[in-house]
Specification:
Shape: elongated
CATH topology of the largest domain: Arc Repressor Mutant, subunit A
CATH class of the largest domain: Mainly Alpha
Distance between the termini: 25 Å
Structural class: mainly alpha
Largest sheet: none
CATH architecture of the largest domain: Orthogonal Bundle
Radius of gyration: 20 Å
Strand content: under 5%
Number of strands: 0
Helix content: 55-70%
């Protein structure tokens, strides 16, 4: 956990609390807190989370996963329950964000960025 984190609801800063040895030791050793922090750390370090942090929408991140899996547009539309023209729209936005002209280029760029 970063020492510069702050509590969003109160605006208070954690560093003064972390200087307290008892509090720091509790945060570092309490199984429920360690478990929660581990889950949180895992959720923000997934390729999809990195793609979202990199500027992709939820739908673009979904499409990226599907095209990387070899899904054609028709199957993507069935899987996501959207029309094929909508798939094409989202893919064009995805390609633009990745600077790609084709699926292969988009997948290659996404791998290079750690999004897949």
């Amino acid at each position: 956990m970063a020492a510069s984190a702050s509590c969003p609801s109160s605006g208070s800063s954690l560093p003064p609390l972390l200087r307290e040895a008892r509090i720091r030791q509790h945060l570092e050793t309490a199984p429920d807190i360690r478990g929660t922090l581990s889950i949180y750390a895992g959720s923000i370090s997934t390729p999809k989370a990195k793609a979202r942090a990199g500027g992709l929408t939820e739908r673009e991140a979904q499409l990226l996963q599907l095209i990387a899996g070899g899904y054609p547009n028709k199957r993507i539309s069935q899987t996501l329950n959207i029309a094929e023209p909508t798939v094409k729209f989202h893919l064009s936005r995805l390609y633009a964000k990745l600077g790609a002209k084709k699926r292969g280029e988009a997948i290659q760029s996404a791998h290079a960025l750690g999004w897949l």
